[in-house]
Design a protein that fits this description.
seven-stranded antiparallel beta sheet
């Protein structure tokens, strides 16, 4: 399956902005055996004075750019094709959560794939007693790690209401959990904290989600958004598995990875600084479609 992805991120400033530097993370990565970035074109407007492409510690693609002159608007546009391979048939090879904790306590590898990087805390994630208690109530440490991942993800999905107006990008996981409302970023952060409370290393995944329209419906272009889900370490034999708590499902070929990180700040689509005054308005639109689907599309819970 080959997907066509089109993304637009726009910023409009109340007052002209200048001397801005941005780190952009929107281009899907190539993952051997899973997804291949076949073509891509990233356009930044106004045209930047400097650009450079780098790869971060976790292997994520990043573009750094600088715009020195004053500007009232900035836009980022991406067009790319990504080939996805079939997801292997599910097979639970994970140990119990109790045994997993003993294994990572003696782990010495500090490479990018090491589970030790994903045990918290992080700049955005600090252990929360209510989230920890919730995870321990719905999970059983005597069950396999993979079973606990699925159990926690489903339980979180059951108690949380998807509400794009309830939180902002800066809302912390504790507040979102108290509200029992939020978006994919909130649900992923909460699930990460819950898994870590069980001794299960967990990472944040940023990417795109291909969605299908309701039966008889037609997909609208540009209504999708970047998505987020969770990556959990299930031991040496199982490796990493991914779960989408927003949609209560294991991740498959409809989830296209942009980057892995400890939390949202590691893989945020755009970060940086600029000199300006007043506020700004930002907007985002994403279209994800299989090449043989033409212009059909649907919305995504994000």
């Amino acid at each position: 399956m080959i997907y066509s992805i089109r993304l637009t991120i726009s910023h409009r400033y109340d007052q002209p902005a200048a001397n801005s530097r941005h780190l952009i993370r929107v281009v899907p990565k190539t993952i051997v055996g899973r997804q291949l970035l076949k073509t891509h074109h990233l356009e930044i407007s106004p045209g930047p004075d400097e650009t450079s492409d780098v790869t971060d510690f976790f292997g994520n693609r990043e573009t750094m750019c600088a715009l020195r002159a004053a500007h009232r608007n900035m836009s980022i546009q991406l067009a790319c094709h990504v080939e996805m391979q079939d997801t292997p048939q599910w097979c639970d090879l994970s140990p119990t959560a109790q045994d997993l904790r003993q294994s990572w306590e003696t782990w010495t590898d500090l490479g990018a794939e090491s589970p030790l990087h994903f045990l918290g805390p992080t700049p955005r994630l600090s252990m929360d007693a209510a989230i920890s208690d919730f995870a321990k109530d719905v999970c059983d440490p005597k069950n396999s790690v993979a079973e606990n991942v699925l159990q926690l993800g489903q339980a979180l999905h059951d108690i949380m209401t998807f509400d794009s107006s309830a939180t902002t990008v800066d809302t912390d996981a504790s507040e979102a959990f108290q509200l029992k409302r939020g978006v994919c970023q909130d649900m992923s952060h909460i699930m990460i904290l819950g898994l870590q409370a069980l001794g299960i290393p967990a990472a944040y995944v940023s990417g795109y989600l291909r969605t299908l329209p309701p039966e008889g419906g037609v997909k609208l272009e540009g209504v999708d958004a970047m998505h987020a889900w969770v990556r959990a370490w299930c031991g040496v034999n199982q490796g990493w598995i991914e779960y989408d708590p927003t949609n209560a499902t294991l991740v498959g070929t409809d989830h296209i990875v942009v980057g892995f990180g400890r939390d949202y700040s590691d893989v945020s689509p755009v970060s940086g600084h600029l000199r300006s005054s007043g506020g700004q308005i930002s907007a985002q639109s994403v279209d994800v479609a299989a090449l043989d689907e033409g212009k059909q599309a649907g919305t995504v819970r994000d």
